[in-house]
What we know:
Shape: elongated
Oligomer: single chain
Structural class: alpha+beta
CATH architecture of the largest domain: 2-Layer Sandwich
Number of strands: 22
CATH topology of the largest domain: Trypsin Inhibitor V, Chain A
Number of helices: 4
Helix content: 10-25%
Radius of gyration: 41 Å
Order of helices and strands: HEHEEEEEHEEEEEEHEEEEEEEEEE
Largest sheet: 4 strands, mixed
Distance between the termini: 141 Å
Amino acid sequence: xxxxxxxxxxxxxxxxxxxxxxxxxxxxxxxxxxxxxxxxxxxxxxxxxxxxxxxxxxxxxxxxxxxxxxxxxxxxxxxxxxxxxxxxxxxxxxxxxxxxxxxxxxxxxxxxxxxxxxxxxxxxxxxxxxxxxxxxxxxxxxxxxxxxxxxxxxxxxxxxxxxxxxxxxxxxxxxxxxxxxxxxxxxxxxxxxxxxxxxxxxxxxxxxxxxxxxxxxxxxxxxxxxxxxxxxxxxxxxxxxxxxxxxxxxxxxxxxxxxxxxxxxxxxxxxxxxxxxxxxxxxxxxxxxxxxxxxxxxxxxxxxxxxxxxxxxxxxxxxxxxxxxxxxxxxxxxxxxxxxxx
Length: 342
């Protein structure tokens, strides 16, 4: 092989090597660029955060971290307490989207301007329950009752709202205090006192509950000729006219036929005085879990005394307007009565 042939062979192989090297570099470059764009595209995918219930500023910062942008829509609600908070979002939390996506946010503008309802002629207890229901539903009360309330005698039933301020129909846009004038009922109303003499405890408490008479119990051992466990004295006597505020003194003789695991006692509790009678209940929760009503009566407050016969270990629960105000365990020692009244 001559020198020219060798030089030609080397030149051809060198060109082939350079071509192969250049091709390999191109392939590596294509692969690198592809990997780069794949990574960049992957970085554009992000998860939508949960911003519902968040304050707007906090929600915007969270979206900014995810490279997402808000589209805000305002909406009035029933409560002024949620103003500026996110009510709804779209797409929902957990959705995978590209960075730069716009997220629809519905933001509370608070309570829109409302008007005061007409409460005149309604019962105060019903209005209180309505306001509590609004508090439970909205988390805050736009209208609150101003305390203390004002009361006056009128021909309307006790507890009826006679006047209000602000006037019905007044526009409001924020928390407003409602001032009410409430009826105490007719002045010097006369009632017929029930005759409780000779009744057993259950029947006596049932009649007291029906008539709503003010009362106070005392208990003593049965005297000769008296039936144990019955009403043996009442003052003023039954079937007589008396002022509706008259307190009837009732004396009961102690029962002798209670079971071994039962307790006879006298429940006592000093209640706050009310401007007019309110619904008061005394119930017993027995060890078995059974709940028994002992007394349900419209009661104006003051000292409350109620005899009871209940299983040992029971719990006595006193409530007013369906709200518990006191509870106590039945005391097994209560049935060991000392001589005389207690």
